[in-house]
Design goal:
The protein has eight helices and nine strands. By secondary structure, the protein is α/β, with parallel strands linked by helices. The protein has one domain: 3-Layer(aba) Sandwich (Rossmann fold). The protein starts with a strand and ends in a 9-residue tail after the last helix.
Length: 238
Amino acid sequence: MSLEFTFLVLEEHPYGREMLQKLLLNNFIPKLIIQESSAVADEERRKFYERMAGQPRPPEIAALAAEHSIPVEAVKNHNVDECRQMLEALAPELTVLGGTRIIKDYILSIPPRGTINAHPGLLPWLRGSASVGWALYKDLPVGATVHFIDPGIDTGDIILREELPVHRGDSYETLNYSVTCLAAELMARTVALFAAGEEIPRMPQDTSAGETFRVIPDDLLAEGVARLREGRYSHYAE
């Protein structure tokens, strides 16, 4: 069974690049890629490069798209009318987010089967930004979650969720990279469910559980990284 879907991503976001690569390796080819070219995209790309410093980088979106003859469009904001018009004209069954700003409901509601996101943290406990850093600081498990998008911040129904094994000797940078790869794998598995016509799991979140975080302050991140480095983290796989 085929699946027509679109892929929305901040311009050359490393998180989205890893996800797109994994989707393509599994023969899931988006009908259109819409990249946001903006100051927000530049800042998010910088932050992710910093978090994954020294780790492998997947091919650029431009190269992946060219290899598979996928059309790519650029917008200044995924919430602009131009983006809405493109999506309405294509009428995709599903939209996959590969790292975006908060998307408005009039964009989210276009595909009849929904809009889905892979969050680099375990929901509902770690919503929002910098999930790996906050997990280390709060001494919580690290992982990734694929969920439906609703108007809230990472509050939509959970489809798949998986904890990442953390080993002694892992660093903040290797964990961010590994979570990115896990999120991409979970997204590929989710898209496979849609493509196969399987019943999609939907686990409503308890929005009273966990917290919604902003970017972690440097001093709190340093404390979490020290916990990992010094072996005081409570969730090692061994």
